[in-house]
Specification:
Helix content of chain B: 25-40%
CATH architecture of chain A: Orthogonal Bundle
Structural class of chain A: mainly alpha
Distance between the termini of chain A: 44 Å
Order of helices and strands of chain B: EEEHEEEHHHEHEHEEHHEEEEEEEEEH
Structural class of chain B: alpha+beta
Radius of gyration of chain B: 25 Å
CATH superfamily of the largest domain in chain B: P-loop containing nucleotide triphosphate hydrolases
Largest sheet of chain A: none
Shape of chain A: globular
Oligomer: heterotrimer
Strand content of chain B: 25-35%
Radius of gyration of chain A: 24 Å
CATH class of chain A: Mainly Alpha
Shape of chain B: elongated
Number of strands of chain A: 0
Number of domains of chain B: 2
Number of helices of chain A: 14
Chains: A mainly alpha, B alpha+beta, C mainly alpha
Order of helices and strands of chain A: HHHHHHHHHHHHHH
Distance between the termini of chain B: 47 Å
CATH topology of the largest domain in chain B: Rossmann fold
Strand content of chain A: under 5%
Strand order of the largest sheet of chain B: 6-7-8-3-9-10
Number of domains of chain A: 1
CATH architecture of the largest domain in chain B: 3-Layer(aba) Sandwich
Number of strands of chain B: 19
CATH topology of chain A: MetI-like fold
Largest sheet of chain B: 6 strands, mixed
Chain lengths: 291, 353, 275
C-alpha cells in the first residue's frame, strides 16, 4: 500500500484539490477569467499603484495638504454621504412600494428605476444642470425662494441622488421579497404595536441591505464625474470642485504625479467602503445561517 | 468479486471521510450503504463513481483497477440525490442524453428510450419537462437515464430522500423489483434503516469513515457485530447494570446491554406461570399509540425499557404493575457484542419438555 | 383602514420621486432638443462629428459587450462549477470597477500605455521596428480599453447568482455519461444563463454607450476619438445657444437608446423569471 501514498506537496494540492473535477472546462474558463482580469483590471490599476510608489514623500505631503485638494475631498465625501442618505430614504420607499403593493403603473415605475443605470452620465449632467439653473424649469421656481441648486453643493447632491438611487433599491428588493409576512403576522398576533413591529422586527432585517445600498451609492458618489461636473460649476471658491474633477484637471495639465497621488487616496477610500460592504454581507449571512 | 474496494483512505482537510475501507460486492447483488449522516457512505459511493478520488487504496470494477479510469469510462450509472435531471430537456432527451454522447444510432436511441419509458411506466410523458413531473416521476426518469447506456453498476445516492413518505413505500418495492428484473449490480446509499432492511440483499453499515459490519439484513439486525450496529438498528433501550435482571449474569468488563423491544414481552401481573423464576416486576410509565402497535415504556427497578405490545392484547394503563419477560439481551464492550439468551428461560423450557 | 392610507401615501411619494427626479428631466431634454424646431434637430444630429462619434460609440459598445459576455460566462462558470484557491479573490477583483472613479480608470490606462506609462517605450520600440504607428491612449484602442475596464463585470454579476443557485449536479451527471465540455456547456449550462446573459449584456451596452469620465481622460480628438457623450460635452461646453440645443438633440438620441435598453432588459428579466 506504500506505493499508493498520495503526493501532498502544496503544489499538487492546488492542482488536485480534495474533490475531483469531473466537469471539464476548468482550465479554459479560469484561463480566460484570469487573462481578462489581468489585462483589463489588475495591470492598469497596478500601474497607478506602482507609479504612486515611485513618488517621493514630499510630493505626497505638499499635494495632499493643498487647500483645493482637501476641499475637494470634503466636498466629494460630504455630498456623496448626504446623497446616499437621501437615497436610503427614497430607495426604501421605492423598494417597499415595489415589493409590497400592486398599483397601476407598477411595471413602469420598476423599469424607471433602471434609468440612471442606463442613461449616460453626461446626459444626466447637462439635463439636471439646465433644469436647475435659475432660468430652468425647476431653478426658476426654487430661485424665487432663494434656493440656488445649480453651481452649488446642492446641485452635486441632486446629481448624486439621481445616479445613486438604483443601488439602494436593488440592494433592498431581494431582502424585502424574502422577508416573510409571517414574521409580521406573528408579531402582530402577539399584540406588538405597528411602530414596535417595524422597529423591532422589520428594521433589523433591513439594516444590512440598507447599509449595503448606502455604501454602494456612497462609493459611486465619491468617484462620480460625468453627472456632476455641469451642475456643480467646479468652483474652488464655492467649494464645488469634486475629487474626480481635480484629478481630471491634473490630467489635462499632464500632471500625472499629482493625479496619481489623489487617485490613490480616493481608491483607498473606495476600497475601504467595498470592504465594509463585504463585511456587512458576510456578517449578515453568518447571522442568518449561524443561529 | 465484481466491485471491490481495498484499504481506501480519503480525507477532506482534517475530516477523515474514509478510514481503511475494504469492501467486496458480488455481481448482481443489491447493496445498501447504511449509516448516519457524515459516516462516509456517500463518499464511498462517489469514489466508486469517480466523482471523488481516494487518497490511498484501490477500487476495482469487474477485475480492473479503475482509480485512474475516467468516470465516464467506468461503466456506471449514477442517480443523484436531487436526481440532477437536465431542467431544460424533455423526459425523452434526458434519457437519451447518455446514448447520444456515445453516438448511438438515432433509431436505436428511439427504441431504447421508448423501452425504458415503458419500463418506468411514464409512456405518454416523453415531451414533459422535469418541472412538470411529480417527485416520484422525476426519480423514475433519473433511474431510466442512469440505465440507458447499459451500465455494469448502478449507484444510487439517497434515492428516496426527496420523496413523500406515502409514495416512498410504493417506489421502494417498484425499484427493488425492477432492479432484480434487470439483474444489475446496484449500490445505494441511505440513512434510513427500514429502507435498507427492506430493499437490500446485503447491507454495509458505516460509521465515522469505517465499515462496521457487512451482512444480509437478517444478520445485521439479529446478530450485530459491533455496539454501533446494535444501537443503530432497531429501537433499543440501553441499560447499565443488566445483571440485576433475572437470568442474566454479569460478564466481566462488560457494563452495558442493549434490549430490543421485541425481546420483551409484558403480561398482566401474576398471569405468567411458565417462567416464574425469571419474570421481572415492572411498572408502566408511558404508552404511545403507534397505529399498528403500542410502544410501552416500563420501569423495572432502576432500569427503563421500551417494549412493544399488540393493539388487541391485554389493555394496560399507565401505572399498572406488570410481569415482564426478557428473552435475550445484547451486551457489548468497546468493540464486540454478544447476544445472551435468558438462562432461566432455557432451563425452564427444558424442564417442561 | 389606516394601512390603506399609508400605502397610498407611499405609492404617491414613490411616484413623486420618480416623476420629479427622472421623468421630468427626460421630458425636458426632448423640449430642449426641439426648442429650435424639427429641422434644426435633424440637422444637429446628422453632422459629421455626430455621425463619426456615433460610429465609434457603436464600435466601443459592441466590443465592450463582447468582452463582458466572454468574461462573465467564463468567470461565472469557473467560480460556480469548480473549487480552487483564490475563488473569492476573483469575485472581489471583478467588483473593483464598480467602485473606481471613471477618471481613475482613465488615469490607469494613461499610466500603463501613455507617454509616461511603463508599456509606452515598448510600444514605441514596436512601432519603430515594424514601421507602424500603433497608439493606445488618445486613440481608439484606449477608448475601447477604458470602456472595457468600466463595464467588464456586468455580465458576470448577472450570471453568477444564477449558476450558484443551479448547482453542479446537472453538469456532473452529464460528465459522468461522458459528454464533452463544449456539449455540457451548450446543452446543460447555457439554457440556464441565456436570459441573465442577455440581461447583463444589455446593461453592459448601456453603460458602455454612456461612459464619459474614463473616455474623456484618454480621448482628445473631436471627430476621431470622441464618443457620443464626449460630443455632447463638446457641444454643451462650447456655450453658444444653438450648440447647447444641439447637445440636447444628441442627448435625446442617447435617451432613446437608453429606453430601448431598459425595454429589452425588462423583456429579458420577464423571460428569465418565467422559466
Amino acid at each position: 500500500m506504500k506505493s499508493m501514498e498520495p503526493n501532498t506537496s502544496w503544489l499538487s494540492r492546488i492542482i488536485r484539490p480534495t474533490s475531483t473535477r469531473i466537469i471539464p472546462g476548468m482550465g479554459l474558463s479560469l484561463g480566460i477569467t484570469i487573462a481578462l482580469l489581468s489585462i483589463c483590471i489588475i495591470i492598469p490599476l497596478g500601474s497607478v499603484f506602482s507609479h504612486g510608489l515611485s513618488l517621493p514623500w514630499d510630493t505626497w505631503k505638499v499635494l495632499l495638504t493643498k487647500a483645493n485638494v482637501i476641499q475637494a475631498f470634503k466636498t466629494s465625501l460630504g455630498t456623496a454621504a448626504i446623497a446616499a442618505a437621501i437615497n436610503v430614504v427614497f430607495g426604501f420607499i421605492l423598494a417597499w412600494v415595489l415589493v409590497r403593493y400592486t398599483f397601476p403603473g407598477k411595471a413602469l415605475l420598476n423599469s424607471m428605476i433602471e434609468l440612471p443605470f442606463a442613461l449616460p452620465t453626461a446626459v444626466a449632467g447637462i439635463t439636471l444642470s439646465k433644469l436647475y439653473t435659475d432660468t430652468g424649469w425647476f431653478g426658476s421656481i426654487l430661485s424665487q425662494w432663494g434656493i440656488h441648486v445649480a453651481y452649488s453643493q446642492i446641485g452635486i447632491v441632486v446629481a448624486l441622488v439621481f445616479v445613486g438611487i438604483p443601488f439602494v433599491v436593488r440592494s433592498l428588493e431581494p431582502v424585502l421579497e424574502t422577508l416573510d409576512p409571517i414574521y409580521e403576522e406573528a408579531a402582530f398576533m402577539m399584540g406588538a404595536s405597528k411602530f414596535r413591529l417595524y422597529r423591532q422586527v422589520i428594521f433589523p432585517e433591513l439594516l444590512p441591505p440598507l447599509l449595503t445600498g448606502f455604501s454602494l451609492a456612497f462609493a459611486r458618489g465619491i468617484g462620480e464625474y460625468g453627472s456632476i461636473i455641469y451642475i456643480s460649476g467646479n468652483s474652488f471658491k464655492n467649494h464645488t470642485q469634486a475629487v474626480s474633477y481635480v484629478i481630471m484637471q491634473k490630467l489635462n495639465y499632464a500632471d500625472y504625479s499629482s493625479a496619481t497621488a489623489i487617485a490613490i487616496v480616493l481608491l483607498g477610500i473606495s476600497f475601504s467602503i467595498l470592504l465594509v460592504v463585504n463585511l456587512i454581507q458576510n456578517h449578515h449571512a453568518k447571522r442568518i445561517k449561524g443561529r | 468479486m465484481y466491485v471491490s474496494l481495498s484499504n481506501i483512505y480519503k480525507n477532506y482537510g482534517d475530516f477523515q471521510a474514509s478510514k481503511d475501507v475494504s469492501l467486496s460486492i458480488e455481481k448482481g447483488s443489491l447493496v445498501a450503504l447504511l449509516g448516519p449522516s457524515g459516516s462516509g457512505k456517500t463518499t464511498i459511493l462517489r469514489m466508486i463513481a469517480g466523482l471523488e478520488t481516494p487518497d490511498r487504496g484501490d477500487i476495482c470494477i469487474n477485475g480492473t483497477r479503475v482509480n485512474d479510469v475516467a468516470p465516464a469510462d467506468r461503466g456506471i450509472g449514477f442517480l443523484f440525490q436531487s436526481y440532477a435531471l437536465f431542467r431544460y430537456m424533455t423526459v425523452f432527451d434526458n434519457i437519451a442524453f447518455g446514448l447520444t454522447v456515445k453516438k448511438v444510432a438515432k433509431e436505436e436511441i428511439r427504441r431504447r428510450v421508448t423501452e425504458l419509458i415503458e419500463l418506468i411506466g411514464l409512456s405518454g410523458l416523453e415531451d414533459r419537462y422535469p418541472s412538470q413531473l411529480s417527485g416520484g416521476q422525476r426519480q423514475r426518469v433519473a433511474f431510466a437515464r442512469a440505465l440507458a447506456p447499459n451500465p455494469e453498476v448502478l449507484l444510487l445516492d439517497e434515492p428516496f430522500a426527496a420523496i413523500d413518505a406515502k409514495v416512498k413505500e410504493e417506489l421502494r418495492m417498484w425499484l427493488r423489483n425492477t432492479i432484480q428484473q434487470i439483474g444489475i449490480t446496484t449500490i445505494f446509499v441511505t440513512h434510513d434503516q427500514e429502507e435498507a432492511l427492506e430493499m437490500a440483499d446485503q447491507i454495509v453499515v458505516t460509521n465515522k469513515g469505517r465499515i462496521e459490519q457487512v451482512g444480509t439484513p437478517q444478520e445485521i439486525y439479529c446478530n450485530p457485530e459491533t455496539p454501533f450496529v446494535a444501537k443503530f438498528l432497531g429501537k433499543s433501550s440501553v441499560v447499565e447494570g443488566y445483571d440485576v435482571l433475572k437470568g442474566f449474569q454479569k460478564i466481566e468488563n462488560v457494563k452495558e446491554a442493549l434490549i430490543r423491544p421485541e425481546y420483551i414481552s409484558i403480561h398482566p401481573q401474576g398471569s405468567l406461570h411458565r417462567y416464574r423464576s425469571v419474570v421481572e416486576l415492572g411498572h408502566i410509565e408511558h404508552i404511545l399509540f403507534k397505529g399498528n402497535r403500542l410502544e410501552v415504556t416500563l420501569r423495572i427497578g432502576e432500569l427503563v425499557l421500551v417494549a412493544n405490545h399488540t393493539i388487541d392484547g391485554h389493555a394496560f394503563k399507565v401505572g399498572d404493575a406488570v410481569d415482564v419477560l426478557i428473552s435475550r439481551i445484547c451486551i457489548y464492550d468497546e468493540t464486540d457484542t454478544y447476544l445472551v439468551e435468558n438462562e432461566g428461560m432455557n432451563t425452564s423450557s427444558l424442564f417442561y419438555i | 383602514m389606516k394601512g390603506r392610507y399609508g400605502s397610498t401615501l407611499l405609492i404617491l411619494l414613490a411616484w413623486a420621486f420618480i416623476i420629479s427626479m427622472l421623468l421630468i428631466p427626460m421630458l425636458s431634454v426632448v423640449f430642449q432638443a426641439l426648442s429650435l424646431g424639427w429641422q434644426f434637430y435633424v440637422q444637429s444630429i446628422s453632422t459629421v462629428y455626430v455621425m463619426k462619434s456615433l460610429g465609434l460609440t457603436i464600435l466601443v459598445m459592441v466590443i465592450a459587450m463582447l468582452v463582458s459576455a466572454i468574461f462573465g460566462v467564463a468567470a461565472a462558470f469557473a467560480v460556480s462549477k469548480f473549487d480552487f484557491p483564490g475563488k473569492t479573490l476573483i469575485a472581489t477583483l471583478a467588483d473593483i470597477p464598480f467602485s473606481v472613479s471613471p477618471v481613475i480608470a482613465g488615469l490607469a490606462f494613461l499610466l500603463t500605455f501613455g507617454r509616461l506609462g511603463w508599456l509606452g517605450p515598448y510600444i514605441n520600440q514596436f512601432n519603430a521596428w515594424t514601421g507602424l504607428d500603433i497608439r493606445i491612449v488618445f486613440a481608439i484602442p484606449g477608448v475601447i480599453l477604458v470602456t472595457i475596464f468600466m463595464t467588464m463585470p456586468f455580465v458576470f454579476r448577472e450570471i453568477l447568482p444564477v449558476l450558484l443557485n443551479q448547482g453542479r449536479e446537472e453538469e456532473e451527471a452529464a460528465a459522468l455519461m461522458g459528454a464533452s465540455g463544449w456539449r455540457i456547456f451548450k446543452e446543460i449550462t447555457f439554457p440556464h444563463i441565456k436570459w441573465p446573459l442577455l440581461y447583463g449584456i444589455i446593461l453592459c451596452g448601456a453603460r458602455a454607450m454612456g461612459e464619459f469620465g474614463a473616455v474623456a481622460a484618454v480621448s482628445k480628438a473631436r471627430g476621431s476619438t470622441f464618443t457620443l457623450p464626449l460630443e455632447i460635452d463638446a457641444l454643451y461646453m462650447s456655450g453658444t445657444e444653438s450648440a447647447v440645443v444641439a447637445s440636447f438633440s444628441v442627448s435625446s438620441v442617447l435617451i432613446l437608446l437608453a429606453f430601448i435598453m431598459i425595454g429589452l432588459r425588462t423583456y429579458a428579466a420577464h423571460k428569465a423569471s418565467h422559466r
